[in-house]
Design brief:
Length: 423
Protein backbone atom coordinates (compact mmCIF):
# COMPACT_ATOMS: atom_id res chain seq x y z
CA UNK A 1 0.00 0.00 0.00
CA UNK A 2 1.30 3.47 -0.88
CA UNK A 3 2.04 5.96 1.84
CA UNK A 4 -0.31 8.87 2.43
CA UNK A 5 0.79 12.44 3.05
CA UNK A 6 -1.72 14.55 4.98
CA UNK A 7 -1.11 18.29 4.72
CA UNK A 8 -2.71 21.19 6.58
CA UNK A 9 -2.22 24.87 7.34
CA UNK A 10 -0.94 23.94 10.79
CA UNK A 11 0.45 20.72 12.26
CA UNK A 12 0.51 20.50 16.05
CA UNK A 13 2.69 17.56 17.16
CA UNK A 14 2.26 18.46 20.90
CA UNK A 15 5.73 17.26 21.93
CA UNK A 16 7.27 19.64 19.38
CA UNK A 17 6.42 23.23 18.34
CA UNK A 18 3.62 23.85 15.79
CA UNK A 19 4.52 23.74 12.12
CA UNK A 20 2.96 26.04 9.54
CA UNK A 21 2.20 24.34 6.22
CA UNK A 22 2.73 21.05 8.01
CA UNK A 23 2.52 17.47 6.83
CA UNK A 24 2.13 14.00 8.31
CA UNK A 25 3.38 10.92 6.45
CA UNK A 26 1.43 7.74 7.20
CA UNK A 27 1.87 4.15 6.11
CA UNK A 28 0.17 0.92 7.30
CA UNK A 29 -1.66 2.76 10.06
CA UNK A 30 1.50 4.27 11.56
CA UNK A 31 3.19 7.66 11.44
CA UNK A 32 6.40 7.59 9.41
CA UNK A 33 7.36 11.25 9.69
CA UNK A 34 6.11 14.77 10.30
CA UNK A 35 7.45 18.10 9.20
CA UNK A 36 6.89 20.88 6.68
CA UNK A 37 4.82 20.25 3.56
CA UNK A 38 7.72 21.05 1.22
CA UNK A 39 10.19 18.88 3.12
CA UNK A 40 7.99 15.79 3.20
CA UNK A 41 6.87 16.21 -0.41
CA UNK A 42 10.53 15.99 -1.43
CA UNK A 43 11.31 12.95 0.71
CA UNK A 44 8.09 11.00 0.08
CA UNK A 45 7.59 11.19 -3.67
CA UNK A 46 4.93 8.77 -4.80
CA UNK A 47 2.87 9.16 -1.62
CA UNK A 48 -0.80 9.97 -2.08
CA UNK A 49 -1.41 13.51 -0.83
CA UNK A 50 -4.57 14.57 1.01
CA UNK A 51 -4.73 18.33 1.45
CA UNK A 52 -6.84 19.18 4.50
CA UNK A 53 -6.83 22.89 3.71
CA UNK A 54 -7.04 25.66 6.32
CA UNK A 55 -7.19 23.32 9.30
CA UNK A 56 -5.16 22.23 12.30
CA UNK A 57 -3.94 18.63 12.30
CA UNK A 58 -3.23 17.45 15.85
CA UNK A 59 -3.56 14.41 18.15
CA UNK A 60 -7.04 13.40 19.31
CA UNK A 61 -8.30 14.61 22.67
CA UNK A 62 -8.14 12.19 25.59
CA UNK A 63 -11.01 12.14 28.12
CA UNK A 64 -9.54 10.36 31.14
CA UNK A 65 -12.63 10.50 33.32
CA UNK A 66 -16.19 10.14 32.16
CA UNK A 67 -19.35 8.17 32.88
CA UNK A 68 -20.68 7.60 29.37
CA UNK A 69 -23.60 5.47 30.51
CA UNK A 70 -25.02 8.65 32.05
CA UNK A 71 -25.00 10.51 28.73
CA UNK A 72 -28.81 10.65 28.68
CA UNK A 73 -29.04 11.89 32.26
CA UNK A 74 -30.47 15.33 31.33
CA UNK A 75 -33.32 13.59 29.47
CA UNK A 76 -33.91 11.20 32.35
CA UNK A 77 -34.01 14.08 34.81
CA UNK A 78 -36.61 15.88 32.73
CA UNK A 79 -39.00 12.95 33.11
CA UNK A 80 -38.93 13.13 36.92
CA UNK A 81 -40.43 15.48 39.47
CA UNK A 82 -36.93 16.52 40.64
CA UNK A 83 -37.56 20.25 40.32
CA UNK A 84 -35.36 21.56 43.12
CA UNK A 85 -31.67 22.04 42.44
CA UNK A 86 -29.32 20.21 44.85
CA UNK A 87 -28.15 22.40 47.71
CA UNK A 88 -24.77 20.73 48.10
CA UNK A 89 -22.55 17.91 46.87
CA UNK A 90 -24.34 15.22 48.87
CA UNK A 91 -27.76 16.37 47.69
CA UNK A 92 -26.47 16.05 44.12
CA UNK A 93 -25.36 12.45 44.76
CA UNK A 94 -28.73 11.57 46.27
CA UNK A 95 -30.58 13.07 43.31
CA UNK A 96 -28.38 11.12 40.91
CA UNK A 97 -29.20 7.89 42.77
CA UNK A 98 -32.93 8.61 42.73
CA UNK A 99 -33.00 9.36 39.01
CA UNK A 100 -30.77 6.42 38.08
CA UNK A 101 -32.89 3.97 40.09
CA UNK A 102 -35.79 4.31 37.63
CA UNK A 103 -33.75 3.71 34.46
CA UNK A 104 -33.84 0.29 32.81
CA UNK A 105 -31.08 -1.64 31.06
CA UNK A 106 -32.14 -0.68 27.54
CA UNK A 107 -32.07 3.00 28.47
CA UNK A 108 -28.57 2.65 29.90
CA UNK A 109 -27.43 0.81 26.79
CA UNK A 110 -28.77 3.56 24.51
CA UNK A 111 -27.20 6.18 26.72
CA UNK A 112 -23.78 4.53 26.48
CA UNK A 113 -24.06 4.32 22.68
CA UNK A 114 -24.89 8.01 22.64
CA UNK A 115 -21.90 8.86 24.83
CA UNK A 116 -19.44 6.89 22.73
CA UNK A 117 -20.63 8.55 19.53
CA UNK A 118 -20.63 12.01 21.07
CA UNK A 119 -17.06 11.48 22.26
CA UNK A 120 -15.92 10.73 18.72
CA UNK A 121 -17.78 13.73 17.29
CA UNK A 122 -15.89 16.02 19.65
CA UNK A 123 -12.48 14.76 18.55
CA UNK A 124 -11.87 12.42 21.46
CA UNK A 125 -9.80 9.38 20.54
CA UNK A 126 -9.33 7.78 23.96
CA UNK A 127 -11.41 7.51 27.11
CA UNK A 128 -11.16 6.45 30.73
CA UNK A 129 -14.79 5.43 31.20
CA UNK A 130 -16.42 4.29 34.43
CA UNK A 131 -18.70 1.30 33.89
CA UNK A 132 -21.29 0.84 36.61
CA UNK A 133 -23.80 -1.31 34.71
CA UNK A 134 -21.77 -4.40 33.78
CA UNK A 135 -24.44 -6.04 31.54
CA UNK A 136 -24.05 -3.28 28.90
CA UNK A 137 -20.32 -3.95 28.41
CA UNK A 138 -20.90 -5.37 24.93
CA UNK A 139 -21.71 -1.84 23.68
CA UNK A 140 -17.98 -0.99 23.68
CA UNK A 141 -17.15 -3.78 21.22
CA UNK A 142 -18.13 -1.72 18.18
CA UNK A 143 -16.33 1.44 19.28
CA UNK A 144 -12.93 2.36 17.77
CA UNK A 145 -12.00 4.40 20.86
CA UNK A 146 -8.77 3.68 22.69
CA UNK A 147 -8.38 3.67 26.46
CA UNK A 148 -9.67 1.93 29.55
CA UNK A 149 -13.02 0.86 30.93
CA UNK A 150 -12.91 0.97 34.73
CA UNK A 151 -15.42 -1.46 36.25
CA UNK A 152 -16.89 0.30 39.27
CA UNK A 153 -17.21 -1.16 42.75
CA UNK A 154 -18.97 0.45 45.70
CA UNK A 155 -20.90 -0.45 48.82
CA UNK A 156 -20.48 -1.75 52.36
CA UNK A 157 -21.95 -5.23 51.95
CA UNK A 158 -19.08 -7.74 51.78
CA UNK A 159 -21.25 -10.36 50.05
CA UNK A 160 -22.44 -7.97 47.37
CA UNK A 161 -18.89 -6.77 46.72
CA UNK A 162 -17.63 -10.38 46.49
CA UNK A 163 -20.24 -11.10 43.83
CA UNK A 164 -19.28 -7.92 42.01
CA UNK A 165 -15.58 -8.81 41.94
CA UNK A 166 -16.39 -12.30 40.70
CA UNK A 167 -18.47 -10.81 37.90
CA UNK A 168 -15.66 -8.45 36.95
CA UNK A 169 -13.08 -11.24 37.04
CA UNK A 170 -15.24 -13.31 34.69
CA UNK A 171 -15.19 -10.43 32.18
CA UNK A 172 -11.43 -9.92 32.18
CA UNK A 173 -10.74 -12.63 29.62
CA UNK A 174 -12.12 -10.43 26.87
CA UNK A 175 -11.15 -6.79 26.38
CA UNK A 176 -14.17 -4.47 26.54
CA UNK A 177 -13.42 -3.05 23.09
CA UNK A 178 -11.09 -3.43 20.13
CA UNK A 179 -8.68 -0.84 21.52
CA UNK A 180 -9.96 -0.71 25.12
CA UNK A 181 -8.48 -2.42 28.18
CA UNK A 182 -9.81 -3.10 31.66
CA UNK A 183 -9.32 -1.19 34.88
CA UNK A 184 -11.11 -1.14 38.24
CA UNK A 185 -12.78 1.82 39.92
CA UNK A 186 -13.22 1.69 43.69
CA UNK A 187 -15.73 4.53 43.63
CA UNK A 188 -14.66 6.83 46.48
CA UNK A 189 -13.56 6.79 50.14
CA UNK A 190 -17.10 7.61 51.26
CA UNK A 191 -18.82 4.75 49.39
CA UNK A 192 -16.59 1.84 50.41
CA UNK A 193 -15.74 0.70 53.92
CA UNK A 194 -12.07 0.47 54.79
CA UNK A 195 -11.99 -3.33 54.60
CA UNK A 196 -13.77 -3.37 51.24
CA UNK A 197 -11.48 -0.65 49.90
CA UNK A 198 -8.52 -2.87 50.82
CA UNK A 199 -10.17 -5.79 49.06
CA UNK A 200 -10.82 -3.90 45.84
CA UNK A 201 -7.29 -2.53 45.62
CA UNK A 202 -5.90 -6.00 46.37
CA UNK A 203 -8.05 -7.40 43.56
CA UNK A 204 -6.74 -4.73 41.22
CA UNK A 205 -3.14 -5.62 42.08
CA UNK A 206 -3.76 -9.37 41.74
CA UNK A 207 -5.28 -8.88 38.30
CA UNK A 208 -2.55 -6.41 37.24
CA UNK A 209 -5.15 -3.70 36.63
CA UNK A 210 -4.87 0.02 37.20
CA UNK A 211 -7.43 1.79 39.35
CA UNK A 212 -9.35 5.02 38.97
CA UNK A 213 -10.88 6.55 42.09
CA UNK A 214 -12.83 9.74 42.83
CA UNK A 215 -10.64 11.36 45.48
CA UNK A 216 -10.52 14.66 47.37
CA UNK A 217 -13.42 16.00 45.34
CA UNK A 218 -15.38 17.89 48.01
CA UNK A 219 -15.13 19.43 51.46
CA UNK A 220 -17.82 16.97 52.57
CA UNK A 221 -15.58 14.05 51.63
CA UNK A 222 -12.61 15.54 53.49
CA UNK A 223 -14.71 16.12 56.61
CA UNK A 224 -15.98 12.55 56.50
CA UNK A 225 -12.51 11.01 56.13
CA UNK A 226 -11.05 13.21 58.87
CA UNK A 227 -13.82 12.86 61.44
CA UNK A 228 -16.47 10.41 60.29
CA UNK A 229 -19.01 13.22 60.54
CA UNK A 230 -20.82 15.74 58.36
CA UNK A 231 -23.30 15.70 55.50
CA UNK A 232 -22.08 12.39 54.09
CA UNK A 233 -22.99 10.62 57.32
CA UNK A 234 -26.10 12.68 58.05
CA UNK A 235 -27.62 12.29 54.57
CA UNK A 236 -25.86 9.73 52.36
CA UNK A 237 -25.18 7.11 55.03
CA UNK A 238 -28.66 7.57 56.43
CA UNK A 239 -30.19 6.99 53.00
CA UNK A 240 -28.01 3.93 52.32
CA UNK A 241 -28.50 2.60 55.85
CA UNK A 242 -24.75 2.35 56.41
CA UNK A 243 -23.43 2.59 59.97
CA UNK A 244 -20.37 4.86 60.25
CA UNK A 245 -19.61 3.44 63.70
CA UNK A 246 -18.54 0.13 62.14
CA UNK A 247 -15.70 1.81 60.23
CA UNK A 248 -13.69 4.39 62.22
CA UNK A 249 -12.62 7.50 60.32
CA UNK A 250 -8.97 7.50 59.21
CA UNK A 251 -8.48 10.92 60.80
CA UNK A 252 -6.43 12.33 57.92
CA UNK A 253 -6.90 13.67 54.40
CA UNK A 254 -8.46 11.45 51.69
CA UNK A 255 -5.13 11.33 49.82
CA UNK A 256 -3.18 10.37 52.92
CA UNK A 257 -5.72 7.68 53.82
CA UNK A 258 -4.96 5.89 50.53
CA UNK A 259 -1.29 6.69 49.94
CA UNK A 260 0.03 5.88 53.40
CA UNK A 261 -1.74 2.53 53.52
CA UNK A 262 -0.18 1.48 50.23
CA UNK A 263 -3.48 1.08 48.44
CA UNK A 264 -2.58 3.30 45.51
CA UNK A 265 0.03 2.18 43.00
CA UNK A 266 2.07 3.88 40.30
CA UNK A 267 -0.06 4.99 37.33
CA UNK A 268 -3.36 4.74 39.20
CA UNK A 269 -5.67 7.62 38.33
CA UNK A 270 -7.01 10.03 40.95
CA UNK A 271 -10.07 11.92 39.77
CA UNK A 272 -10.74 15.55 40.79
CA UNK A 273 -8.01 16.11 43.44
CA UNK A 274 -9.55 19.41 44.49
CA UNK A 275 -9.31 19.27 48.29
CA UNK A 276 -5.56 18.74 48.65
CA UNK A 277 -2.66 20.50 50.36
CA UNK A 278 1.09 20.49 49.78
CA UNK A 279 1.63 17.29 51.75
CA UNK A 280 -1.06 15.53 49.74
CA UNK A 281 0.50 16.63 46.45
CA UNK A 282 3.91 15.37 47.60
CA UNK A 283 2.33 11.99 48.41
CA UNK A 284 0.65 11.82 44.99
CA UNK A 285 3.97 12.56 43.30
CA UNK A 286 5.83 10.00 45.40
CA UNK A 287 3.22 7.33 44.70
CA UNK A 288 3.36 8.01 40.96
CA UNK A 289 -0.36 8.54 40.41
CA UNK A 290 -1.95 10.71 37.73
CA UNK A 291 -4.67 13.30 38.41
CA UNK A 292 -7.69 13.78 36.14
CA UNK A 293 -9.01 17.33 36.38
CA UNK A 294 -12.74 17.92 35.77
CA UNK A 295 -13.06 21.71 36.19
CA UNK A 296 -16.58 22.15 34.73
CA UNK A 297 -17.96 19.50 37.08
CA UNK A 298 -16.11 21.02 40.05
CA UNK A 299 -17.54 24.45 39.24
CA UNK A 300 -21.08 23.13 38.74
CA UNK A 301 -21.03 21.27 42.06
CA UNK A 302 -19.25 24.14 43.83
CA UNK A 303 -16.62 21.88 45.39
CA UNK A 304 -13.64 24.16 44.80
CA UNK A 305 -10.79 24.54 42.34
CA UNK A 306 -7.90 22.11 41.96
CA UNK A 307 -4.45 23.63 42.72
CA UNK A 308 -3.18 23.21 39.18
CA UNK A 309 -0.08 25.36 39.61
CA UNK A 310 1.01 23.39 42.68
CA UNK A 311 0.48 20.12 40.85
CA UNK A 312 2.62 21.29 37.95
CA UNK A 313 5.36 22.60 40.25
CA UNK A 314 5.48 19.15 41.85
CA UNK A 315 5.57 17.50 38.41
CA UNK A 316 2.35 15.57 39.01
CA UNK A 317 0.97 14.25 35.71
CA UNK A 318 -2.35 15.91 34.80
CA UNK A 319 -5.10 15.15 32.32
CA UNK A 320 -8.64 16.35 31.61
CA UNK A 321 -11.99 14.62 32.05
CA UNK A 322 -15.56 15.70 31.44
CA UNK A 323 -17.10 13.67 34.29
CA UNK A 324 -20.72 12.84 33.38
CA UNK A 325 -23.61 14.75 31.88
CA UNK A 326 -25.08 14.70 35.37
CA UNK A 327 -22.57 17.43 36.31
CA UNK A 328 -21.17 18.83 33.05
CA UNK A 329 -22.93 20.25 29.96
CA UNK A 330 -21.07 18.22 27.32
CA UNK A 331 -18.62 15.39 26.69
CA UNK A 332 -16.23 17.59 24.72
CA UNK A 333 -12.67 18.03 25.92
CA UNK A 334 -12.57 21.09 23.64
CA UNK A 335 -15.24 22.63 25.88
CA UNK A 336 -13.43 21.44 29.02
CA UNK A 337 -10.18 22.94 27.79
CA UNK A 338 -11.73 26.34 27.06
CA UNK A 339 -13.34 26.43 30.48
CA UNK A 340 -10.11 25.40 32.21
CA UNK A 341 -8.09 28.04 30.38
CA UNK A 342 -10.56 30.70 31.52
CA UNK A 343 -11.25 29.41 35.06
CA UNK A 344 -7.59 29.12 35.97
CA UNK A 345 -7.04 32.62 34.56
CA UNK A 346 -3.71 32.23 32.82
CA UNK A 347 -2.08 30.10 35.53
CA UNK A 348 -1.04 27.58 32.88
CA UNK A 349 0.42 28.33 29.45
CA UNK A 350 -1.68 27.35 26.40
CA UNK A 351 0.96 24.90 25.20
CA UNK A 352 0.81 23.08 28.55
CA UNK A 353 -3.01 22.93 28.48
CA UNK A 354 -2.90 21.36 25.03
CA UNK A 355 -0.41 18.79 26.30
CA UNK A 356 -2.63 18.03 29.30
CA UNK A 357 -5.63 17.50 27.01
CA UNK A 358 -3.76 15.07 24.74
CA UNK A 359 -0.44 13.57 25.81
CA UNK A 360 -1.24 13.94 29.52
CA UNK A 361 -4.36 11.85 29.01
CA UNK A 362 -2.50 9.27 26.93
CA UNK A 363 0.03 8.84 29.73
CA UNK A 364 -2.72 8.48 32.31
CA UNK A 365 -4.30 5.64 30.32
CA UNK A 366 -1.04 3.91 29.42
CA UNK A 367 -1.28 4.94 25.77
CA UNK A 368 1.78 7.17 25.53
CA UNK A 369 3.43 4.77 23.06
CA UNK A 370 0.44 4.87 20.71
CA UNK A 371 -1.25 8.27 20.81
CA UNK A 372 -1.19 11.69 22.48
CA UNK A 373 1.45 13.15 20.19
CA UNK A 374 2.33 13.03 16.51
CA UNK A 375 5.62 11.20 16.29
CA UNK A 376 7.14 8.46 14.12
CA UNK A 377 6.17 4.97 15.22
CA UNK A 378 2.89 6.00 16.83
CA UNK A 379 -0.50 5.02 15.48
CA UNK A 380 -1.74 7.42 12.81
CA UNK A 381 -4.39 8.87 15.10
CA UNK A 382 -5.23 12.54 14.71
CA UNK A 383 -8.07 15.03 14.50
CA UNK A 384 -8.61 17.69 11.85
CA UNK A 385 -9.92 20.89 13.41
CA UNK A 386 -11.46 23.96 11.81
CA UNK A 387 -11.61 27.35 13.53
CA UNK A 388 -13.72 30.29 12.32
CA UNK A 389 -10.57 32.33 11.71
CA UNK A 390 -7.17 30.68 11.79
CA UNK A 391 -4.72 32.98 13.61
CA UNK A 392 -1.06 33.46 12.91
CA UNK A 393 1.46 31.00 14.32
CA UNK A 394 2.20 33.04 17.45
CA UNK A 395 -1.47 33.01 18.48
CA UNK A 396 -2.37 29.46 17.43
CA UNK A 397 -2.07 27.67 20.77
CA UNK A 398 -4.02 30.33 22.63
CA UNK A 399 -6.72 30.26 19.94
CA UNK A 400 -7.03 26.48 20.22
CA UNK A 401 -7.32 26.61 24.01
CA UNK A 402 -10.00 29.28 23.84
CA UNK A 403 -11.91 27.77 20.92
CA UNK A 404 -14.48 25.71 22.84
CA UNK A 405 -17.69 25.36 20.80
CA UNK A 406 -16.15 27.14 17.81
CA UNK A 407 -13.69 24.28 17.25
CA UNK A 408 -15.21 22.00 14.61
CA UNK A 409 -13.75 18.52 14.24
CA UNK A 410 -14.12 17.67 10.55
CA UNK A 411 -12.24 14.36 10.66
CA UNK A 412 -11.01 12.00 13.35
CA UNK A 413 -8.53 9.32 12.38
CA UNK A 414 -7.74 6.40 14.69
CA UNK A 415 -5.06 4.07 13.34
CA UNK A 416 -5.44 5.83 9.94
CA UNK A 417 -9.20 5.24 9.72
CA UNK A 418 -11.62 8.17 9.72
CA UNK A 419 -14.05 7.20 12.49
CA UNK A 420 -16.02 10.44 12.83
CA UNK A 421 -19.73 9.48 13.03
CA UNK A 422 -22.17 11.13 10.69
CA UNK A 423 -24.08 13.98 12.31
Amino acid sequence: MASTLYTARYLLPIAAPPIEDGALLVDSGRILAFGSRSELRNTSQGAKEIDLGDTVLMPPMVNTHTHLELSSFPDWLNTTDEVEAPQDFVDWILRLIRVRRNIDLNQVRASLVRGLEESLRSGTGAIGDILTTLPVVDVYQESPLYGKVYAEVLGHDAGVVSDRLEAIEAMLGRPPGKALNWGVSPHAPYTLSSSIMDRVFAFSAEQSLHSSIHLAESAEESAFVRSGKGAIVDKLYAAAQWDPATDPAPGCSPVESLCRTGRLRRNDLLVHGVQVNGADIALIKRTGCHVALCPRSNAALDVGKAPVVDYLKADVQLSLGTDSLASAPSLSIWHELAFARSWFAGDVAPRKWLEIATLGGARALGLQGRTGQLTPGHDASFQVVRLPDLPNMAELEEALCAAGESAVVSRLYLAAQNVLPES
